[in-house]
Amino acid sequence: MMGDTFGSSMASLFFLWATIQQIFPNHFKIAIKEFLISTIQQLSFFQRFSDRFINFFSPYVEIAFSEFEDYRYNQAFAAIETYLGAKATDKAKHLRASQVRESKGLVLKRDETRVRDEYEGVSVWWENATDSIGFKTLKLTFHRRSRDIVTDSYIKYVVEEGKSIEDKNKKMKLFTNNPSSHWGSSKTSFWRYIDFEHPANFKTLAMDPKKKEEILNDLVAFSNGKDYYKKIGKAWKRGYLLYGPPGTGKSTMIAAMANLLNYSIYDLELTAIRNNSELKKLLTATSNKSIIVIEDIDCSLDLTGKRKKKESNSTNLSKDGQQGNEEEDKSFVTLSGLLNFIDGIWSACGQERIIVFTTNHLAKLDPALIRRGRMDMHIELSYCTFEAFKILAKNYLDLDSHPLFKQIESLIKETKIAPADVAENLMKKNREIDVEGSLKDLIQALERRKKVQRDQVDVHKDKKKDKIFKAFRMLF
Ligand SMILES: Nc1ncnc2c1ncn2[C@@H]1O[C@H](COP(=O)(O)OP(=O)(O)OP(=O)(O)O)[C@@H](O)[C@H]1O
Ligand SMILES: [Mg+2]
Question: Are 183 and 319 within one domain?
Fold first, then answer.
């Protein structure tokens, strides 16, 4: 209303000024111009004043909860969203149903932008809005006479209720840090998540059963260790270093860890971070009960302090057409920055966190990075053993034993083959389980590999002999 009056008054004034321009001489025009300017100033003052006046006398108060705050995913926002989502089942008329994880059934979400809630006789309204770049905000409106009850206890109640619902049917999340050019002109890295639905578990993980049990016990002891860590005065965190050749189950084990403990995963891409302070912001923005993963640590961080660019990463970027110029992509995340976080801030804030590094080349890592205390447990994932093969045979063929197992056992002992390659051969073809055919395929693959590996050894031996022979010739 007020805005309309202001707009029409302005239009009339401009019309008046245009008419005056045509009719009156110059000095008179100037006097009128000054008069009009002062009238406009008074009008805009009046507009401002009237807004304040309305706000002052409006009986409603509004509180906004943003999805992100300074790179940080707002955990209160998530809890409130969950709380409002749960209200859907009994109150909202328009629902959206989705299935997140089979075991947890359908998830209902309200499809309405405005939800009314009641708490100890007080009515409040929630409204959700999305800004132009896709970030969400939840607005809470209530009568100002309820201010105390809303700010003192209602918001706390909503957040706690939301968190307990989250815990009950917790959907695990997979967070990734992506560079974005939305904020300001430079690229900034921030967390984005999707629901984590990896089926990996320790039962289907093919590795030495003893080692597996040891890792399982370690993880369970860690997750139940709140009082123990408090008692010994140590931050509640644990580091695991997973190393081994490609396809031996490092990433699969991380997924199995998350499923075992019901923790979310933060997949930290160091090559997308500009500097140590950005790294710090990202890491302190991670939530409790989470696993922070840095895959291929030897490729992401140059141990002299500068960064190496991962080949795969640069191809991905160029595929998306987002590859910036080289100068912009330079990163100053350093080994000491990472170590500072693990030892310093890490210990000061956040609880119940696991950090996992993976590498294909243990020898390339700086000892400082992997010393005990930082990485508490070093886990080697190696080529497939017969024990591991038996687990894969059970997973893929539902098989406990078979006459061909003997032949496979002796071939596996003599051949270096990753579990991923064994699994590839055991996967059912044409949707039919052909046990015999799959085992024979594997035997053939093992025999081919054995031959190649033997030839490589021979070539290596020949080269060595050649070198010795040349050295002799030089001598005589
Ligand atoms: N130990 C294992 N137990 C069960 N499945 C496995 C195992 N190792 C590999 N696989 C299978 O092979 C696929 C590839 O394994 P994964 O990605 O975990 O290997 P990785 O060690 O992380 O390899 P990279 O070093 O290349 O990242 C998985 O999807 C899984 O199906
Ligand atoms: Mg991997």
Answer: yes
Together in a domain, 371 and 252:
yes
pTM for the full model? 0.65
Nearest Cα to 285, choosing from 80, 82, 68, 138? 68
ipTM value of the model?
0.99
Is there a single domain that holds both residue 186 and residue 234?
yes
Domain final residue, candidates 41, 57, 73: 57
- Starting from the CA of residue 360, give the closest ligand: 1
Number of domains the chain contains: 4
The CATH number that applies at residue 234 is: 3.40.50.300
The ligand 1 site (C-beta within 6 Å) comprises 205-207, 246-252, 360, 381, 419-420, 423
Ligand 1 atom with least separation from CA of 395: 4
Is 84 in the same domain as 96? yes
Q: Do 46 and 64 fall within a single domain?
A: no
Q: What mean pLDDT comes out for the span 89-115?
A: 56
| Confidence grade of residue 404 (pLDDT, cut at 50, 70, 90) | very high
Q: Are residues 376 and 357 in the same domain?
A: yes
Residues 417, 468, single domain; the answer is yes
450 pLDDT more than 80? yes
Q: What's the pLDDT at 124? A: 93
pLDDT given for residue 243 in this prediction? 96
Model pLDDT, residue 382:
94
Ligand 2 centroid – CA 249 distance (Å): 7
Tell me the pLDDT of the chain averaged across its residues.
79
The domain containing residue 92 runs over which residues? 60-168
- Show which of 10, 25, 57 is a domain's final residue: 57
Find the 248 Cα to ligand 2 centroid distance in Å.
8
Give dist(CA 135, CA 474) in Å, integer: 73
pLDDT tens for residues 162-206? 887 877 766 789 999 976 545 444 556 788 889 898 999 999 999
End-to-end alpha carbon distance in the chain = 106
Same domain, yes or no: 164 and 95: yes
What distance in angstroms lies between residue 241's CA and the mean position of ligand 2's atoms?
13
